[in-house]
Design brief:
The complex is a heterodimer. Chain A contains nine helices and no strands. Chain A is mostly helical. The radius of gyration of chain A is 19 Å and the shape is elongated. Chain A starts with a helix and ends with a helix. Chain B is mainly alpha-helical. Helices cover 66% and strands 4% of the residues of chain B. Chain B contains six helices and two strands. Classes of the chains: A mainly alpha, B mainly alpha. At the A-B interface, helix 2, helix 3, helix 6, helix 7 and helix 9 of A face helix 1, helix 2 and helix 3 of B.
Chain lengths: 173, 170
C-alpha cells in the first residue's frame, strides 16, 4: 500500500478517529498526539492493511484501544479515577453560563467512557449498531442497552437543567 | 402521539435506525420545533457541531524513492553477465596465469617476473657503482697524502726555502 492508497483507505477516517480520541481522552492535545501516534503505527504496518475488509472499523478499534491504553497508563501513575469522566456541571452553574452547546458537550463528557463513546459513534459518526458492536467487541444488544442508558441520562440531565432554568425564571419574576 | 414523539421515545430507548435519527435531526434543525421539544434542540445541535471537529493533518514519513527491485530486468541482465564471464574464461590464454618455471632470489626476495628482476638488478648495479666511486675518493686522497709525506722531499723543500731566504737577506 503506497501513500496514495493509505490516504484513500485509512486517512479518510482521520476525523472520526480524532473525534473518538477526543471523546475518550477528554483532552484536545492528548487526542492530537494519540491520533498522530496511531497514524504512524498504521503507516508502518501499511503492507498488512490490504487484507482488512472493514477499514473504518479497524481504524476506530485501533484508535479506541490506543486511547484506553493511554488512560490505563495514566491510572497506573495515579491521579485519575478508573473511568475518566468530566464532572457534571452544576445546574446552578449552568444558569450562569451562556454557551448552551458547550454545556451539552460537557454533559456528554460526563457520561462513563463506554456510554459516551457509543453515543458519539451513533449520533455524531452515524455508525450503525452492528458496526459499533464490531468495533467495541460487544454484542448488538449490549450496544443498544448502553446507548439507551446514555441517551436517557442525557435526557434526565437536560430536564434537570430545564427545570432549574424555569425555577430561576419564576424566582426572578 | 405524533410521529416526532414516537421517534423521540424510540430514540431514547436506542431503537431508532440511522434513517429515523436523520429525520429527527432534520426536525430539530428546522423552525418547526414544538415548545415541548425545545429542550432537545441543543442536544442535536451539539452532535452536529461535534461532527464538524476535524483531525489535525496526518504527518507521514517520506517514502524512499528507491525503485522496487525489478526481477524481470535483472534475470536476463545477470544471465548476460554470466555468459560474458564464461566467454572470457574460455578464450583468455592461460599462459599469463601459469606459474613461472624460474625464480630469481635477490637479497632474499623471490622475483618471478623477468622484467622486474632485470630492473632490480640494474638498480642494484648502479647503486654499487656509485658507492664504489664514493669509497675510492678517500683512497685516492690517501695516496696523495702518502706521496706528500716523503721525508727526502720535505727536507729538500725546507732546505731550499732556507737557502732562498738567506740569499735575500744578503
Amino acid at each position: 500500500m503506497d501513500a496514495q492508497q493509505f490516504q484513500r483507505q485509512i486517512l479518510c477516517y482521520s476525523d472520526k478517529m480524532y473525534r473518538m480520541a477526543r471523546s475518550i481522552l477528554l483532552d484536545e492535545s492528548g487526542a492530537k498526539d494519540a491520533f498522530q501516534d496511531l497514524v504512524m503505527r498504521l503507516w508502518e504496518r501499511r503492507d498488512q492493511l490490504d487484507i482488512i475488509e472493514n477499514k473504518q472499523a479497524f481504524s476506530l478499534t485501533s484508535m479506541r484501544n490506543l486511547c484506553v491504553d493511554l488512560l490505563r497508563k495514566k491510572l497506573e501513575y495515579g491521579g485519575l479515577t478508573a473511568d475518566i469522566v468530566s464532572s457534571a456541571p452544576d445546574p446552578q452553574q449552568e444558569l450562569e453560563e451562556q454557551d448552551s452547546l458547550h454545556n451539552i458537550h460537557r454533559l456528554i463528557d460526563s457520561l462513563p467512557e463506554l456510554q459516551r463513546t457509543i453515543v458519539r459513534m451513533k449520533d455524531v459518526e452515524e455508525i450503525d449498531i452492528r458496526e459499533i458492536a464490531q468495533i467495541l467487541y460487544m454484542s448488538e444488544n449490549a450496544v443498544t442497552v448502553n446507548l439507551s442508558r446514555a441517551r436517557k441520562k442525557l435526557r434526565d440531565m437536560i430536564v434537570t437543567i430545564q427545570q432549574s432554568e424555569e425555577k430561576q425564571y419564576e424566582r426572578n419574576r | 402521539m405524533n410521529e416526532i414523539d414516537k421517534l423521540l421515545n424510540d430514540y431514547f430507548e436506542g431503537l431508532t435506525s440511522i434513517e429515523e435519527e436523520k429525520r429527527l435531526k432534520q426536525y430539530f434543525e428546522s423552525d418547526r420545533v414544538k415548545p415541548e421539544h425545545q429542550m432537545y434542540k441543543t442536544l442535536f445541535a451539539a452532535f452536529s457541531q461535534e461532527r464538524e471537529w476535524t483531525s489535525p493533518p496526518a504527518r507521514l514519513p517520506r517514502e524512499s524513492k528507491r525503485k522496487p527491485f525489478n526481477l524481470k530486468l535483472w534475470i536476463p541482465l545477470s544471465g548476460a553477465v554470466a555468459a560474458c564471464g564464461l566467454l572470457l574464461f574460455f578464450t583468455t590464454p592461460f599462459s599469463r596465469f601459469q606459474k613461472p618455471d624460474y625464480v630469481v632470489i635477490v637479497n632474499g626476495r623471490h622475483i618471478t617476473n623477468a622484467r622486474e628482476a632485470r630492473c632490480y638488478a640494474d638498480r642494484m648495479f648502479f647503486e654499487a657503482e656509485k658507492e664504489m666511486k664514493e669509497s675510492f675518493r678517500s683512497v685516492i686522497r690517501a695516496r696523495q697524502i702518502t706521496q706528500n709525506m716523503d721525508a727526502d722531499k720535505i727536507f729538500e723543500g725546507v732546505h731550499k726555502s732556507i737557502t732562498d731566504r738567506q740569499t735575500q737577506e744578503k
